[in-house]
């Protein structure tokens, strides 16, 4: 009987051991299956995420390219002489008188500075640039000392200007100390109105054309007045910019009337 019980106990222990091994095997199997499932899910997730990321990046790249193409197709604003460029049948210009006797004047035409202190072609007095009215080609620049200079060179220069030549003028410091009635008349023939009363140390800018009847709308002056002067003994600087109509070398009344009308319209629309 005791031997039987002993064998029965041994069998029970063996059975328990086998059951434990089976449980451990099943557990290991589940762990293996779970690991495989997790690996599969991770691979699938990264694959989908990668596809979405690629699509997103492709979309952003496409939008970026479209933005660049749109920007490249947008025509940038064109500026000349610091102002918006004029239509093809006009020239862009900007004039600025000197600042007292400290800073020189500037004459700019079609984006090119023709007269300035940097170019070292200015003097105290009247600084002038001549250009062809049809092509805008530079004819010459000149500067006349209107304080200690002579009258004769000024008169000779103004009388030699050919018809349909654009005349740009910017004063510096002293524009009228040696001014004569003959010089005033010659500038008046170019279209100036202010020249008749231009006085010592006035700030003056003017754009006109030779051979035209009437007065130019492109002219500004600040009078020398002790009550309003910006500087000690001088008024402030004066500036003028706009669109000057191209001319032809016809010299008849119809052309003169047409050009005068163009100048008036351009001044109202573009002058600044």
Automatic annotation (TrEMBL):
Superkingdom to which the source organism belongs: Eukaryota
Limits of the ILEI/PANDER domain: 125-211
CC annotations in GO: extracellular region
Keyword hit for Mitochondrion: no
Segments traversing the membrane: 25-43
Keyword Coiled coil: no
An example molecular function term from Gene Ontology annotations: carbohydrate binding
Location of the protein in the cell: Secreted
InterPro entries (UniProt xref): FAM3, ILEI/PANDER_dom
Sorted UniProt keywords: Disulfide bond, Lectin, Membrane, Secreted, Signal, Transmembrane, Transmembrane helix
Similarity remark: Belongs to the FAM3 family.
The protein's name in its UniProt record: Protein FAM3C isoform X1
Organism of this sequence: Clupea harengus (Atlantic herring)
Organism phylogeny: Eukaryota, Metazoa, Chordata, Craniata, Vertebrata
């Amino acid at each position: 009987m005791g031997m039987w019980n002993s064998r029965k106990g041994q069998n029970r222990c063996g059975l328990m051991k086998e059951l434990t091994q089976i449980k451990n095997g099943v557990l290991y199997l589940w762990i293996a299956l779970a690991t495989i499932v997790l690996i599969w899910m991770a691979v699938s997730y990264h694959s989908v995420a990668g596809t979405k990321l690629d699509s997103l990046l492709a979309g952003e790249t496409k939008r970026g390219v479209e933005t660049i193409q749109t920007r490249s197709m947008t025509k940038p604003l064109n500026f000349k002489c610091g102002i918006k460029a004029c239509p093809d049948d006009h020239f862009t210009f900007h004039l600025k008188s000197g600042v007292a006797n400290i800073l020189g004047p500037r004459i700019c035409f079609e984006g090119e500075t023709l007269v300035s202190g940097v170019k070292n072609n200015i003097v105290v007095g009247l600084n002038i640039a001549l250009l062809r009215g049809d092509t805008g080609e530079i004819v010459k620049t000149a500067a006349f000392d209107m304080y200690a200079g002579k009258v004769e060179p000024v008169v000779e220069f103004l009388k030699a200007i050919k018809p349909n030549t654009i005349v740009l003028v910017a004063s510096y410091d002293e524009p009228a100390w040696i001014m004569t009635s003959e010089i005033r008349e010659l500038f008046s023939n170019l279209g100036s109105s202010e020249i008749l009363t231009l006085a010592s140390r006035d700030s003056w800018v003017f754009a006109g054309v030779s051979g035209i009847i009437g007065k130019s709308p492109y002219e500004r002056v600040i009078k020398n007045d002790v009550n309003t002067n910006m500087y000690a003994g001088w008024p402030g600087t004066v500036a003028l910019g706009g669109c000057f109509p191209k001319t032809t070398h016809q010299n008849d009344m119809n052309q003169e009337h047409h050009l005068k009308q163009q100048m008036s319209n351009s001044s109202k629309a573009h002058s600044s």
